[in-house]
């Protein structure tokens, strides 16, 4: 007797499928950040439970197959990059170092 595979429907999977279906319907360009650090630019054409098809244009005849477990983040292509700015020494406030006595001995 064969066991029937049962897949648990998690809220995170529904959210992932909702996000991917939104990208597929809108056909807006996205940036797919892979776990290895590679960034892929294109349009999401289709997806299933294991893979995503990413094409350069919606009419591209040969889209790339990307496994979902390799994807770290999918962001819109027009999203601004986060710029890390280090405040200068002149704008940082002066901090007074406080002495905190030890209340218990180290072992």
TrEMBL record:
InterPro entries membership: Hfq, LSM_dom_sf
Keywords: RNA-binding, Stress response
SUPFAM superfamilies reported in the protein's UniProt record: Sm-like ribonucleoproteins (SSF50182)
Segments of this protein annotated with the region Disordered: 85-107
CDD domains attached to this UniProt entry: Hfq (cd01716)
The UniProt record lists the keyword RNA-binding: yes
Protein name: RNA chaperone Hfq
Annotated organism of origin: Cupriavidus basilensis
One protein family per Pfam: Hfq
């Amino acid at each position: 007797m064969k066991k029937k595979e049962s897949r648990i429907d998690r809220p995170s999977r529904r959210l992932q499928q909702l996000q991917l279906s939104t990208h597929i319907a809108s056909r807006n360009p996205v940036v797919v950040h892979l776990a290895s650090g590679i960034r892929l630019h294109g349009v999401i054409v289709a997806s299933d439970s294991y893979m995503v098809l990413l094409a350069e244009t919606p009419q591209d005849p040969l889209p790339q197959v990307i496994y979902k477990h390799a994807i770290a983040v999918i962001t819109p292509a027009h999203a601004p990059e986060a710029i890390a700015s280090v405040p200068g020494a002149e704008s940082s406030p002066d901090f007074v170092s406080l002495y905190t006595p030890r209340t218990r001995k180290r072992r």
